[in-house]
Write a sequence for this structure.
């Protein structure tokens, strides 16, 4: 049975959303609030978080924010300590914060790669490790990891660690799912493809990806609703939309050499070097 979008199934529970100041993270926060969850928003941009929290309070939920830069190795622990100080119990964790590092792996400083992996992998597993035990003890919890279609298709030249980090998130989610059979904790990796958000502006590929046909794009709200429904229903892997589902299926069926050849031709269309050149 399809539930009405006005269901308040989250009433009395709290969701923590990372990277909630824009794009998919903001959309997920709005969907959780729509379903009655109180929300805690975290990201680096305090003003954006304040505006979104003010708007979400209009939906009849408690909405607060904690500014944090998850590239700082101390941030996950500090964030959880602040939650404890405020008496906030997290029932749902959305690991959404992320970005891309343009260019070839060798062209970027190690410090940039280290910051990237801290945000995309280490912060994800640390926040999960800190908040998952409480969910298990209460026998109810939701962990939604925003991965990507990039984690399901062959790697590409440029943005070298992005697909690798998303593949990690998918496998991490699948393993956690098997650790939470029948204990009320659901773990889902949601895998969007090209999504309208600030992501491509930040990494400098907006003009290149704009050349893609419109049917390949999804909007952040649709991705958020599908991801929310998947984690609430206990679906371990959610690939958003029929186009992305088809691409993921083809990637599994096509011989590896052929798939890599296709990616070799395609990845250069969307690669930007650190100096801004293609």
């Amino acid at each position: 049975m399809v539930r009405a979008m006005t269901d308040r199934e989250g009433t009395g529970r709290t969701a923590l959303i990372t990277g909630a100041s824009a794009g998919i993270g903001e959309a997920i926060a709005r969907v959780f609030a729509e379903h009655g969850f109180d929300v805690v928003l975290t990201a680096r941009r305090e003003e954006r978080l304040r505006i979104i929290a003010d708007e979400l309070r209009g939906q009849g939920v408690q909405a607060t924010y904690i500014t944090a830069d998850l590239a700082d190795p101390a941030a996950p622990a500090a964030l959880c300590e602040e939650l404890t100080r405020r008496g906030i119990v997290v029932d749902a964790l959305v690991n959404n914060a992320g970005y891309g590092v343009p260019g070839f792996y060798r062209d970027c400083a190690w410090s940039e790669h280290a910051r990237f992996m801290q945000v995309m992998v280490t912060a994800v597993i640390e926040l999960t490790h800190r908040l998952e035990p409480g969910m298990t003890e209460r026998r109810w919890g939701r962990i939604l990891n925003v991965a990507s279609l990039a984690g399901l298709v062959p790697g590409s030249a440029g943005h070298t660690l992005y697909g690798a980090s998303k593949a990690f998130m998918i496998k991490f989610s699948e393993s956690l799912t098997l650790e939470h059979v029948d204990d009320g904790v659901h773990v889902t990796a949601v895998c969007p493809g090209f999504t309208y958000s600030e992501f491509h502006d930040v990494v400098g590929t907006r003009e290149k990806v704009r050349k893609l046909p419109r049917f390949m794009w999804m909007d952040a709200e649709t991705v958020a609703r599908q991801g929310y429904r998947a984690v609430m229903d206990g679906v371990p892997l959610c690939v958003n939309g029929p186009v992305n589902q088809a691409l993921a299926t083809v990637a599994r069926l096509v011989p590896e050499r052929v798939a890599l050849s296709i990616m070799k031709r395609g990845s250069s269309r969307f690669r930007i070097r650190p100096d801004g050149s293609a």
